[in-house]
Amino acid sequence: MTQPQSSSPDTQWPRWEVFKQDAPNRPHQAVGSVHAGDPQHALVTARNVFVRRPAAVSLWCVLEGDILTATPEKLTTHPALLDTPGESGTYHVGLKRTNRRSMTFVDLSGTVQATGSGDALRQAQVMHPDVLAWMVFPESAVVRTDEDAGTVESWFAPAKDKTYKQQQYYGVIGRHVGELKRAGLMPGRAASEEGA
């Protein structure tokens, strides 16, 4: 049975792609997305979703509509993507190189000067022909956390000592499971290991 079409407007907040940098010498990586009503809301939501446990020094958010992505197969069937208009300026280039890891990220690899999104995609394709996918977006579309030490400390450092629930115990972010086992802080596991 088909459902009747709703005539109510879409009330979902816009979707933002989230880019996280784990350390100053690492690239920003696309780690997922959030729905948010404005740029600051997007950053706060991204922090709550993607930086509860892992380390981070920077977060970027970009509206989904400002990002152009393509795979080699998609460019073969939709070559008009290379003519996608956009503003002239600096574009960030993201690359998906592998499917081998359990969580495969798109790493930002640098920037290009382009006349629009399609031109940036064309340049990414020429510079990096052997990847699984490309992603480009203008610098002007990036909403980011401040880079000063105070912001990094207040936004990211507290997560390192925050407790979180695992299946059988409460752990502390930043403490390795092996360390917790040796200290006998993992109920059920530490006792069973001692009896083995």
Write the layout of secondary structure elements.
Blueprint: E1 15-21, E2 29-35, H1 39-50, E3 58-63, E4 68-70, H2 72-77, E5 89-96, E6 106-114, H3 117-127, E7 133-138, E8 143-144, H4 149-156, E9 163-165, E10 170-172, H5 177-182, H6 189-195
Could you describe the 3D structure shown?
The chain has 6 helices and 10 strands. By secondary structure, the protein is of the alpha+beta class. The chain is globular.
Structure characteristics:
8-stranded antiparallel beta sheet, 6 helices, disordered C terminus, single chain, 196 residues, alpha+beta
Average pLDDT rating? 83
Give the N-terminus to C-terminus distance in angstroms.
Answer: 58 Å
Major sheet: 8 strands, antiparallel
Strand proportion, as a percent range, falls in 25-35%
Query: What oligomerization state is this entry in?
Result: single chain
Structural class: alpha+beta
User: Could you tell me the number of beta strands?
Assistant: 10
| Strand order in the largest sheet | 4-7-5-6-2-1-3-8
The geometry reads as globular
What is the rounded Rg? 21 Å
- How many alpha or pi helices? 6
Taking pLDDT < 50 over at least 5 consecutive residues as the criterion, the unreliable ranges are 189-196
Give, in order, the helices and strands: EEHEEHEEHEEHEEHH
In short:
With 196 residues, the protein is of the alpha+beta class.
